[in-house]
Every structure is written in C-alpha cells, then in structure tokens.
Structure to design on (127 residues):
C-alpha cells in the first residue's frame, strides 16, 4: 500500500506538470492565432494582397483549432488529475486508519481490521 501511495504521488506530480504545460501551450497558440487574425484584417483593410490576407486568416484559423485541441487536452488532464487526487486521498485515509488500529489494544485490532475491510469493499465503487 505504501508503494502504491508513492506511485500515486509521483503520478500526481507528473499530472500537475502536464496540466501547467497544456495550459501554457493553449494560451500561447490562442494568442498566436489571434495575432494572425489581426494581421489578416490589417492587410485586408490596407488594401494589400487579398491572397496574403486569406493565407493569414486561414493560418489563424488553423492555429485557433490547434489551440482548441490544447484546451481540450488541458480539460482532460484536469479531469485525470482530479481522479488521481481522490484516489490518493482515499489511500491516505486507509493508511491513517491502519496506523490508528495498530495503536489499539491487541484484543480490539482484529475487529477493527474487519470493520475497515468491510468499509473499503462497501465503498470501492463510490470513489
């Protein structure tokens, strides 16, 4: 159980790093797409090359689509982080319960271990 807790904590740290990177990439690409759109409008309003304006506008659209994918990835990573955080929390509660049971008089331990096991299996699908 302690090894499982260690792995969950490591995965949690990795997810937090990934979520930060996903958000930064999404914000950067969103800003880049907006800049391309503004560039396309400026070229069009100044009466410049229509094909250049069209290319900048299409580029901005593609970058905004990529930005949307980054935001989707950010959302999915956030969901995953939430799931693992709940699992980590539950595992820590079980470890605390085990430590408390170990401090009880020896006669009460078996009964409390049984109650803890029953509780874990009753609530396994609720987590």
């Amino acid at each position: 159980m302690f090894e499982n807790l260690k792995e969950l904590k490591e995965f949690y740290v990795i997810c937090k790093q990934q979520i930060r990177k996903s958000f930064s990439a999404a914000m950067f690409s969103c800003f880049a797409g907006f800049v391309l759109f503004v560039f396309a409008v400026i070229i069009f309003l100044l009466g410049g090359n229509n094909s250049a304006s069209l290319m900048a506008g299409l580029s901005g659209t593609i970058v905004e689509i990529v930005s949307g994918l980054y935001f989707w990835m950010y959302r999915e990573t956030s969901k995953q982080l939430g799931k693992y955080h709940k699992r980590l929390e539950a595992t820590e509660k079980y470890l605390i319960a085990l430590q408390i049971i170990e401090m009880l008089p020896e006669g009460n331990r078996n009964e409390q271990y049984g109650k803890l096991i029953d509780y874990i299996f009753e609530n396994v699908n609720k987590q």
In short: DSSP finds three helices and no strands in the chain. The chain has a mean pLDDT of 80. The CA atoms of residues 82 and 125 lie 16 Å apart. Helices lie at 2-45, 50-103, 106-122.
